[in-house]
C-alpha cells in the first residue's frame, strides 16, 4: 500500500465525514464539555443552583487518599489488562484459526463470556471467590494448598488482583475476535513465499504474521489501555463500590456523583482520568501513526 | 445491496415513528416504584388496580426500577421536565433534602381529614415534614432487632439477654463453644448501620444520637468514642463472624440458619430469606439496654411516597396519595406482606408483627436508620468507618478524627 | 510420507486436546451460572455448596422468569434498540473511516484523534449531560433516544477500528476504479465495503454484544417499563434487599441467547477456513 491518497476536491472527504462527525459532536463532545464544566462547581450545582468554586475540587482531590488508592489500582488494571489478554488472545486466535472439524464450536464456546451480562458474571465470580465455600478455595484446599486459600474479595491486598482476573477472563475472548478478523487479512502468498525461502515457523510468525496483524494489535492495545483505565462494571457489581481498597477512578467518580451527590467532585475526577488516558493514548497513537507513514503501511 | 438500503430505510422510518410516540395523555398518572421484589410488586399492583377501577378516566402506569438504580436516578427524575407523578421513597433526611431544594410538592391535604396527625402517629409527622409542611406519605414500616437462633440458645442454656452485660455473657458462651456470636454481612455496608444507631442511642440516649446524625455533634466527642468503642471491643474479643467483610448480608444469614452463628442484628425482612425448614428456629429480641436506662431503642425505617414538584399530573397524583392513605388501602398493602402500616387504624397482620409492634411501642427512641437520617455521603463514610473499626479496633481515635473532618466538610453549606 | 501424515495427526490431536481443555477451563464460571439457574432459592441459601450440582433440576425457573418479568417484551425492546444501533453505527463509522483512511487532507490526523479521544471518556460522566440533552429535545423515555446515543457513542471505537483495517486494503484496488471514472461513493460501497467484510462482521458482533448488554444508558434514558430492554428487566430481579440469584442466572442465560445466535450467524464472515496461522505443516 502506498502513501498516495486521493486528492480530489477538498470537499470529498468532508462529505463522508459530515454526518458521523456531526452526530459525534452533538451527542458526545458537547456533553463532555458540559460535564467537564461541572468539575468547577459545588456539589449541589446539578440539583440546585450552579456555584463556581474554581479549582477547589482538584485541590481536594490531591489531598484525598482514596483518590490515590483509585489511581494506583487503575495502574494495576492497566498493566495486567494489556500484558495478559493480548498475547493470550492472539495465541488462542491462532489456535482456532484452522479448518479442523468442530472448530466453530470451540470459537463459539470461547466467546460466551462476552455475551453474559455483568450482573451474573459478578455474582458467579463472587461465589468462586467466597472464602469458605467458594470454588477456588475448595480446589486449592483439596490440592493441599490451603495456605493459598485467601479471602480474595475481603482482603485489600488481593481485591484488585481478583477483580482484574475477572476482567481478563472476559477480555481474552474479545481480543481473540479482533485477532481472528485480523488473521483473515494475512495474505497467503506472503506466508508461502516465506515457506519457500525456508523460514522456520517462528520466523514466519514474527516476520510475516505479526507485522500484518499490526492493525488488530494497534486496536487491541488501544482498547485495552482505554478499558483498563475505564474499568467500572466488574468493580461495581462485585464490590458494591463501597469497598474502598478496590476503588478505581471510574467507580470513585460514580460513587461521588451518584451516591454522595457531589457531581462537582465526580466531574473533577473524570477530568483527571480523561487526561491520564489521553496522555497514554496520544503517545501510543502518535508513534503508530508515524510508523505507519514511514513503513508505508 | 439495493434491498439492504431499502430495508434500512424502512427500519429507520419505523423507528422514527415508534420513537416519536411520546405518551400524550391528559389524564394520566405515572408512578415510579422501587418495589422490585416479587411479592411487594404484585401487592402494590393490586392496590393500583383498585385505584384504576375507581378512576377509569385516569390511565395509571407503574414503572418498576431496581432499588440501587432507583436511588441513583431519582435526583435526575426530580429535576427533569419528564418527572413522574408519584415516587416511592423513605422518610427522614433523605426526603427532606429534596424538599429543601424545592423539588417536592406539599401534600398536607391528602391525609384523611386533611391532617396527617388524625390517623398517623405523631412521630411520623416529624420524619415526613420539612419546615412545617408535609411532603411525604408514609405507607409501611418495619423494625430492626437482634434475630437469634433458638436452637443454638437452647443448646447452651441461654436466654435472650435484656441488658448489655447479659449480652456480653451470651457472646462469651457462644464463642467458647465455637459458635460465632454475632453474624454481620459487612460487605453490604449498610448492615452496620443498625449497630451504629442502636448502640449509640442505647449508650448516649436518643436525643444525642439524633444530634449526631444531624451533624451537630462531632464524631470525636467522648460520648461517640464510648459507644463506637464498644464495637472495637466486640471486634477485639472476636465476637463478629470471621471474614465478615467478604459476606453479603444474605450470605451471612446462612450461618445463622445453620447454627454456626448465634445472633444477627437485622431488619425484619431477614425472615424472607431464611430457608423454609429453619424458619421456626429464628426469633428476635430487642436491642439490649445499656447502663442504667430502663428502656431500649429501635430503628424503624419508614417507606412511602412523594410528589415531585415538576410532576405533570398533580391532581391525579394527589388523588392517588389520598387513596393510599386510607386505612383500607394501607391494610390492603401491608397485610399480605406482614408489614406494619403507618395508619394507626390498621390492625396488625400477624403474631410476629404484633410482637414487633409491641417492641417498638416499648422503646424510648426510634430512629429511621443511619443512611436515611444523614446525608448519603456522611452515612457512607460513617458506615465505612465502622468497618474500619471492626477491622482495626486499635485505630479507633484516628478513624473518628478522620470521620469528623468529613462531617465538617459535608455539613457546611 | 508416513512422517508427514502422522505429524498431521499428532497436530490434529493436539489441537483437540488443547482446545477442549482450554474451553472447559474457561467456561467453568458459565457452568456454575447454569447450575445456579436450575436451583431453588432455598437450595442456594441452604446447606449445600453454592456451586454444587442442583439437587433438583428446576427447569421451570426459566419459564418463571420469562413469565414473571415479561421477558418477551424486554427481548423485543432490546432487539428494537440494538439492531438499528448496530446498523447505524456501522454505516456512519464506515463512512468516516473511509474518509480518514484514503484521503490526505490536513485535518485527517486531528479528526482521527478526536474520534479516539471520545472513547476515553468515562461514560458515567456523560450520564447527566446526555440525560438533559435528550430531555430537552423531547426524546426522553423513547427508544429512539437510546439508539441515537448508542450510535454516537460507538462511533469513536468503530471509526478507529475500521480505519485501521481499511488502510490494509491494497491501494491499487482503490485507485484503479477511480481511473475508470467511478465516483468515490461507488468505490466505498462496491469495493471497500465488500473487502472489509471480515472486519465489519467482527465489529458487528462486538457492537451487538455490547449494546445488547448495556444497562446504564437504558437506565438513564428510559423510565417506562414497557420500553425497557432485557438488562434493565434483569436488574429488577434484584429486590430491595433480597437478590434472587437463581432468577438472575436463568434470566441472564436467556438473555445470552440472541448475542450468541448473532455470533454464530456472523462468525463465518470473519473466520473462514483459511489455514494461515499456526497449524500448517
Short summary:
By secondary structure, chain A is mainly α. Chain A has 14 helices and no strands.
Describe this structure in words.
The complex is a heterotrimer of chains A (about 300), B (about 425) and C (about 280). Chain A is an all-alpha fold and about 300 residues long. Chain A has helices spanning about 10-40, 55-60, 65-85, 85-95, 105-115, 120-130, 135-140, 160-185, 190-195, 200-210, 215-230, 235-240, 250-260, 265-295. Chain A contains 14 helices and no strands. The mean pLDDT of chain A is about 80. Helices cover about 50% and strands about 15% of the residues of chain B. In chain B, the strands form 4 sheets. Chain B has a 6-stranded mixed beta sheet with strand order 2-1-3-12-6-13, sandwiched between helices. A 4-stranded mixed beta sheet of chain B has the order 8-9-7-10. In chain B, helix 17 (about 375-390) packs antiparallel against helix 18. The longest helix of chain B is centred in the first third of the chain and has 19 residues, at about 1-20. The N and C termini of chain B lie far apart (about 60 Å). Residues about 20-25 of chain B have low confidence and may be disordered. Chain C contains 14 helices and no strands. Chain C has helices at about 1-25, 30-35, 40-45, 60-70, 70-100, 110-120, 125-135, 145-165, 170-180, 185-195, 195-210, 215-220, 230-235, 245-270. Chain C is flat. Chain C starts with a helix and ends in an 11-residue tail after the last helix. Mean pLDDT of chain C is about 80; it is low at about 275-280. At the A-C interface, helix 1, helix 4, helix 5, helix 6 and helix 8 of A face helix 1, helix 2, helix 5, helix 6 and helix 7 of C.
Q: Which descriptors apply to this entry?
A:
heterotrimer; A: 297 residues; mainly alpha; 72% helix; flat; C: 281 residues; disordered C terminus
N-to-C span of chain C: 12 Å
Cα shape of chain C: flat
User: Mean of the pLDDT scores of chain C?
Assistant: 81
Largest interface, by Cβ-Cβ below 8 angstroms: which chains and how many residues each?
A: A-C, 115 and 114 residues
Return the structural class of chain C.
mainly alpha
Described by the principal axes of the CA atoms, the overall outline of chain A is flat
Mean pLDDT of chain A: 82
Number of strands of chain A: 0
Q: Strand fraction band of chain C?
A: under 5%
Low-confidence stretches of chain A: none
Q: Order of helices and strands of chain A, N to C?
A: HHHHHHHHHHHHHH
Low-confidence stretches of chain C: 273-281
Number of strands of chain C: 0
Q: Helix count of chain A?
A: 14
Rg calc of chain A: 23 Å
Structural class of chain A: mainly alpha
For the biggest sheet of chain A, the summary is: none
Report the span from N to C terminus of chain A: 6 Å
Kindly provide the radius of gyration of chain C, computed on alpha-carbon positions and rounded to a whole number of angstroms.
24 Å
Please describe the biggest sheet of chain C, giving its number of strands, its sense, and whether it closes into a barrel: none
Amino acid at each position: 500500500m502506498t502513501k498516495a491518497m486521493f486528492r480530489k476536491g477538498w470537499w470529498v472527504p468532508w462529505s463522508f465525514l459530515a454526518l458521523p462527525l456531526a452526530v459525534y459532536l452533538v451527542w458526545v463532545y458537547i456533553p463532555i464539555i458540559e460535564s467537564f464544566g461541572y468539575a468547577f462547581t459545588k456539589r449541589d450545582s446539578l440539583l440546585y443552583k450552579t456555584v463556581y468554586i474554581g479549582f477547589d475540587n482538584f485541590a481536594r482531590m490531591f489531598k484525598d487518599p482514596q483518590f490515590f488508592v483509585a489511581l494506583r489500582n487503575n495502574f494495576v488494571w492497566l498493566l495486567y489488562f494489556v500484558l495478559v489478554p493480548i498475547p493470550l488472545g492472539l495465541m488462542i486466535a491462532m489456535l482456532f484459526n484452522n479448518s479442523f472439524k468442530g472448530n466453530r464450536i470451540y470459537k463459539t464456546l470461547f466467546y460466551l463470556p462476552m455475551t453474559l451480562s455483568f450482573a451474573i458474571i459478578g455474582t458467579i465470580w463472587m461465589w468462586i471467590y467466597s472464602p469458605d465455600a467458594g470454588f477456588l478455595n475448595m480446589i486449592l484446599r483439596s490440592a493441599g494448598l490451603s495456605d493459598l486459600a485467601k479471602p480474595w474479595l475481603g482482603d485489600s491486598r488481593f481485591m484488585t488482583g481478583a477483580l482484574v482476573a475477572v476482567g481478563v477472563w472476559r477480555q481474552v475472548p474479545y481480543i481473540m475476535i479482533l485477532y481472528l478478523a485480523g488473521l483473515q487479512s494475512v495474505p497467503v502468498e506472503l506466508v508461502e513465499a516465506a515457506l519457500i525461502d525456508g523460514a522456520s515457523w517462528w520466523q514466519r510468525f514474527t516476520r510475516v504474521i505479526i507485522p500484518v496483524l499490526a492493525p488488530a494489535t494497534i486496536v487491541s492495545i488501544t482498547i485495552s489501555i482505554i478499558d483498563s483505565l475505564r474499568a467500572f462494571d466488574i468493580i461495581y457489581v462485585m464490590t458494591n463500590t463501597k469497598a474502598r481498597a478496590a476503588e478505581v477512578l471510574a467507580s470513585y467518580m460514580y460513587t461521588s456523583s451518584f451516591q454522595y451527590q457531589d457531581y462537582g467532585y465526580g466531574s473533577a475526577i473524570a477530568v483527571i482520568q480523561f487526561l491520564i488516558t489521553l496522555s497514554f493514548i496520544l503517545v501510543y497513537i502518535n508513534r503508530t501513526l508515524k510508523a505507519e507513514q514511514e513503513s508505508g503501511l | 445491496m439495493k434491498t439492504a438500503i431499502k430495508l434500512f430505510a424502512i427500519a429507520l422510518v419505523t423507528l422514527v415513528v415508534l420513537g416519536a410516540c411520546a405518551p400524550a395523555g391528559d389524564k394520566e398518572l405515572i408512578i415510579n416504584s422501587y418495589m422490585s421484589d416479587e411479592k411487594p410488586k404484585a401487592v402494590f399492583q393490586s392496590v393500583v388496580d383498585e385505584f384504576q377501577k375507581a378512576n377509569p378516566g385516569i390511565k395509571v402506569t407503574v414503572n418498576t426500577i431496581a432499588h440501587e438504580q432507583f436511588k441513583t436516578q431519582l435526583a435526575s427524575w426530580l429535576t427533569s421536565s419528564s418527572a413522574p407523578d408519584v415516587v416511592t421513597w423513605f422518610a427522614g433526611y433523605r426526603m427532606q433534602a429534596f424538599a429543601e431544594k424545592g423539588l417536592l410538592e406539599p401534600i398536607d391535604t391528602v391525609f384523611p381529614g386533611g391532617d396527617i396527625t388524625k390517623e398517623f402517629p405523631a412521630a411520623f409527622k416529624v420524619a415526613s415534614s420539612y419546615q412545617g409542611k408535609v411532603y411525604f406519605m408514609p405507607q409501611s414500616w418495619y423494625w430492626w432487632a437482634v434475630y437469634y437462633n433458638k436452637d443454638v440458645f437452647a443448646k447452651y442454656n441461654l436466654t435472650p439477654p435484656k441488658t448489655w452485660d447479659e449480652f456480653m455473657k451470651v457472646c462469651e458462651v457462644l464463642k467458647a463453644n465455637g459458635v460465632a456470636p454475632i453474624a454481620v454481612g459487612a460487605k453490604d455496608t449498610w448492615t452496620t448501620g443498625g449497630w451504629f444507631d442502636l448502640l449509640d442511642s442505647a449508650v448516649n440516649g436518643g436525643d444525642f444520637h439524633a444530634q449526631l446524625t444531624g451533624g451537630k455533634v462531632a464524631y470525636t466527642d467522648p460520648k461517640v468514642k464510648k459507644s463506637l468503642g464498644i464495637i472495637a471491643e466486640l471486634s477485639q474479643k472476636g465476637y463478629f463472624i470471621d471474614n465478615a467483610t467478604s459476606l453479603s448480608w444474605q450470605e451471612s444469614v446462612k450461618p445463622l440458619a445453620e447454627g454456626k452463628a448465634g445472633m444477627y442484628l437485622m431488619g425484619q425482612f431477614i425472615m424472607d430469606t431464611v430457608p423454609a425448614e429453619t424458619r421456626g428456629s429464628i426469633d428476635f429480641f430487642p436491642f439490649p439496654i445499656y447502663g442504667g436506662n430502663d428502656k431500649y431503642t429501635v430503628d424503624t425505617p419508614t417507606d412511602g411516597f412523594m410528589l415531585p414538584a415538576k410532576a405533570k399530573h398533580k391532581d391525579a397524583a394527589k388523588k392517588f396519595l389520598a387513596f393510599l392513605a386510607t386505612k383500607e388501602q394501607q391494610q390492603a398493602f401491608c397485610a399480605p406482606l406482614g408489614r406494619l402500616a403507618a395508619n394507626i387504624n390498621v390492625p396488625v397482620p400477624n403474631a410476629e408483627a404484633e410482637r414487633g409492634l409491641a417492641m417498638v411501642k416499648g422503646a424510648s427512641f426510634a430512629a429511621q436508620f443511619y443512611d436515611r437520617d444523614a446525608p448519603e455521603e456522611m452515612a457512607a463514610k460513617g458506615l465505612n468507618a465502622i468497618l474500619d473499626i471492626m477491622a482495626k479496633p486499635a485505630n479507633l481515635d484516628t478513624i473518628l478524627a478522620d470521620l469528623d473532618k468529613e462531617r465538617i466538610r459535608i455539613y457546611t453549606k | 510420507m508416513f512422517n508427514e501424515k502422522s505429524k498431521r495427526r499428532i497436530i490434529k490431536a493436539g489441537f483437540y486436546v488443547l482446545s477442549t481443555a482450554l474451553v472447559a477451563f474457561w467456561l467453568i464460571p458459565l457452568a456454575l451460572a447454569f447450575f445456579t439457574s436450575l436451583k431453588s432459592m432455598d437450595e442456594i441459601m441452604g446447606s449445600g455448596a453454592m456451586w454444587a450440582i442442583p439437587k433438583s433440576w428446576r427447569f421451570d425457573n426459566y419459564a418463571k422468569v420469562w413469565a414473571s418479568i415479561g421477558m418477551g417484551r424486554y427481548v423485543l425492546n432490546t432487539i428494537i434498540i440494538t439492531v438499528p444501533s448496530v446498523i447505524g453505527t456501522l454505516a456512519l463509522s464506515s463512512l468516516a473511516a473511509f474518509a480518514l483512511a484514503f484521503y490526505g487532507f490536513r485535518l485527517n490526523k486531528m479528526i482521527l484523534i478526536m474520534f479516539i479521544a471520545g472513547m476515553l471518556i468515562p461514560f458515567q460522566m456523560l450520564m447527566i449531560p446526555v440525560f438533559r440533552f435528550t430531555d430537552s429535545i423531547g426524546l426522553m423515555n423513547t427508544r429512539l433516544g437510546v439508539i441515537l446515543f448508542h450510535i454516537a457513542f460507538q462511533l469513536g471505537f468503530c471509526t478507529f477500528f475500521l480505519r485501521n483495517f481499511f488502510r490494509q486494503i491494497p491501494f491499487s484496488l482503490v485507485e484503479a476504479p477511480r481511473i475508470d471514472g467511478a465516483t468515490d461513493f461507488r468505490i466505498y460501497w462496491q469495493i471497500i465495503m465488500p473487502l472489509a467484510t471480515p472486519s465489519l462482521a467482527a465489529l458487528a458482533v462486538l457492537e451487538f454484544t455490547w449494546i445488547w448488554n448495556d444497562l446504564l444508558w437504558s437506565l438513564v434514558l428510559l423510565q417506562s417499563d414497557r420500553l425497557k430492554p432485557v438488562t434493565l428487566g434483569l436488574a429488577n430481579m434484584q429486590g430491595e434487599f433480597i437478590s434472587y440469584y437463581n432468577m438472575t442466572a436463568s434470566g441472564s442465560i436467556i438473555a445470552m441467547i440472541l448475542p450468541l445466535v448473532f455470533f454464530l450467524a456472523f462468525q463465518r464472515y470473519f473466520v473462514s477456513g483459511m489455514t494461515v496461522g499456526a497449524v500448517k505443516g
